[in-house]
Structures are given as structure tokens and as C-alpha cells.
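User: Could you write out the 3D structure of this protein bound to adenosine-5'-diphosphate? I've included everything you need below.
Assistant: Certainly. Input first, then the structure.
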Amino acid sequence: MATIAENTAQKVARPEVRQTLCFIGGKWIPSASGKTFDTLHPATEEVIAQIAEGDAADIDLAVDAARAQFDGGEWSRMDARERGRLMYQFADLLEENAGELAALETLDNGKPISDSRAADIPLVIQCIRYYAGWADKIQGDTIPIDGDFFCYTRREPVGVVGQIIPWNFPALMAAWKWGPALATGCTIVMKPAEQTPLTCLRMARLAQKAGIPDGVINVVPGYGPTAGAALVTHPGVDKIAFTGEMATAKIIQRAATDTMKRLTFELGGKSPNVIFADADLDAAVDGAHFALYFNQGQCCCAGSRLFVEDSVHDEVIDRLIAKNQDRRLGDPFDTETEQGPQVDQAQFDKILEYVEYGKQDGAKCVSGGKRHGDVGYFVEPTLFTGVTDDMRIATDEIFGPVLSVMKFSDFDEATRRANNTTFGLAAAVWTRDISKAHRFASEVRAGTVWVNCYDVFDSAAPFGGFKQSGLGRELGEAGLAAYTESKTVTVSLG
Ligand code: ADP
């Protein structure tokens, strides 16, 4: 990860919080119950703002607004090119407000401002622009069926989509969900994560300013088992797109059965990152550090199982420990900070519990393992060696800065153990041998494979999980599929 030279160090100003209510049908309204919940700054644990706490009644209103907009057809039947133009305008407004959005993300999530500025918000803008380009390129086929008929398909918007997102990349997850929904002409009810509602609400306002019609994007902040669950069972919702934990996805999958909703899930992982002895070790060590510690380890695709070939194992460990010692933890508004706090107390507690499990199960904690400081949810970058495949720190998603390192001795062992997981989101391999790299890429059961790199994301490249890491794909052309229904039209020519 790039560090910023000392003479450029600066504190970025905290942004003003402007949007705290539900955004329904283009209006800002309190929740029907009048209830609110607090959102905190994870570095100081102080309350930033009270947010309207939406529930079933608010979801009803939001679905009505989205339904009326969809069924009325202003958005879904608008010329596709015009829809694209409004999306480009939205992307331009996001870009004009990028500084504010980055600071809001850092305030709500605690991630370092240098990451919000360099990764989250630029990717948000790229994603909306990418899908703006798709709006007028979504087309069907003509089908040569038997007989005197003309047969063709149309790809129509799936309708009202319910979107439920997590707190690790709040603005980016909103963009991944809004991009394909807007391009295809769907209307949206989004429930952001209760920990991080701020950027999503701000983005909804910018979409409105860009001219996206009222009722196209509705945002209801609130909790999962109340607002989220109401969205999942609502008969007026045609599809649910969810990003979060596998356990939550299973609850949603069951709850969505009665109304036969279309579902896409982007879930967790325990992604294998494999370093062969013939790799460029400088790049591999930097990559392994970044793969796990980026975003405080709070990435669904974090490279949390690091497999290192035995002949270079000890050297890699020494170098990783040195990097952890150099890592700058602290105020996320300081442009030099590399690691901020975890998002909340619950995540902080869970991570430290897994550190204890690691020790109990017999792994060796060679770096970190403790709280950093005494205010905020900071956890030291932590590294375990001597990890075996059955330990809890090797099987479970920790979602924090805890790296489990395993030794291996040949290619077959590495791929077999890499695949020894219920997850299948991502994987990476470090080697100078091009055949080995491609063989690994073909044998590993994961939706994304990085070769000699990690966490390279682009809106054009599909992302999603094999096995219990997901259902369907987001991003790229593949990401449009789940937002359209195919309609077959057959015309008699007789
Ligand atoms: P995470 O560990 O990332 O918080 P969750 O799956 O708990 O993962 O949360 C992701 C999103 O799912 C959040 O917006 C949360 O409020 C929502 N959620 C949690 N439980 C439910 C549920 N039963 N039904 C619908 N949404 C839920």
C-alpha cells in the first residue's frame, strides 16, 4: 500500500451530515414510528447523527413509490439513451462531490481517508458511468424458429428491486446495486447497513439533483430483521439483491420463497492466497499484506488464508511481520493513516474472540493480537503461523485484520487445500511460472482469481461467488442479467 510522504501529512476536515431521514418518492421524511438510531464514528465511538429508523410501514411507502414509478413507466419506458444521459449526469455530480463523499465514508465507516479518496469513491463514479454506457445497449435476439413466424426476445427490466447492503464499502455497494438497476430501467428500494447509512443517503440526493425522477431511488435506513425483512417479504418487490453474510442470505432465501423473488447474493469468503517459491517475493509479500489488511480486513474477498511454499515460508513470515510493525494505525482523517478502526463494537469483539480461538486451537500469534489504543475499535494487524485447515481461524470468515498462514510443499497440496472451504469468492496465486498460474486459475473453485495481483476491481469485470459465497454475478455485462427478464415474442407471418 502506498504511504504518503511525511511532509504531505494533513488532517482532512470532517464533513457536514445533511441527510438523515428516509428518502421516499423524492421526499425526505421521518420514519412512521418516529424512531431514530445513532450512527457512530468508529475511531472515537462518538455519535455522529440520529438517523430515521425505518420499519415495515416505511418499506410499504417506499415500495409503493417505487412501484408507482415503475408501473407508471416514466423511467422504465424512457428512451434508453436519455436514461443513460441522466446516469452520466449523476456520475458527474458524484465526481464534483467526491471529496465530501470520501469524508462522509470515513466518518461513518472509519476507513482511512486516503482509501476513501483513492478507492471507494473513484470506483463508485466509475461504476455509475460504466452502467450509464450500457443503458442503450441492452438488446434481445431474433430467433429462427420453425414455421411461418417471426420470433424475437426483449430484455425488460425486472421491476422493483429491493437492495440490502453491508457497511464495509457503503457507497461502493450502493453503486454496484444502483448501476445495473438504473441502466435496465428498474426502480429501487435500498436498505443501507445500520452502521453506515450516510453516503447512501447523500448519493440519493445527488441522483435527484442529476434529474433521476422521484421514486426511482428510495432509501429506507433501518435494521435487518425489521426493515430488511419487510423488504424481502414484500409482494410488491420483484427481486432482492443482497450483499452480506452467508447466514443472513440463507434467512433471506427462505423468506423470499413465497413471493418467488429473483435473488442475487454476494456473500463472504475465506479466500486462499497462494505464494509459490518461484514468485517475485517483494510483490508477493506486499500483495499478501494488502490482500488481508486493506480496509481493516473487512473485505468479503480478503486473502485471509495465506498458503506459502515451505522453502520461502520463514522469509515471507519475517517480511510480513516487519510490514505489520510499520503499518500506521490512527485517526482515519489523517492522510498518512493506513489502518483505521473496525466498524463497531460487535465486530471488534468478534475479531478478538477469534484471536483467542487461534491461540486455543494451537496456532502461533507472531504479530499483533490486541486492541490498539483505548478509544475506538482499533485492532492491531495480527498474524498467525502454524495454522491447520481445521482451526476456526482457517475455516471461518473473521472480517478483521487477522491473517492465517499455512505451509505447503507442492502444487497439488496447495490447490487441494485452497479448495477445502465452503466458500468460493476469490483466490490468488503468486508465481513466475505462467503454466502453474493458469493451472491454478483453472483448478481453484472461486469466482475471481488474481494472478500476481490482488483486489484489482473494475466495473467491467464480473464479480461473485462459487459455492456458498454467492448467487449470480455483479458488475460487467453479467451484472445486468439479474435485472432483466427475457420476453419471447412470436408473430405469425401467415
Ligand atoms: P454484516 O456482517 O456485513 O453486517 P449482515 O448480513 O448481518 O452482514 O448485514 C448485511 C445487511 O443485511 C445489513 O444491511 C443488515 O441490516 C441486513 N440484514 C441483516 N439481517 C437481515 C434480515 N433478517 N433480513 C434482511 N436483511 C437483513
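The chain has a mean pLDDT of 97.
User: Perfect, thank you.
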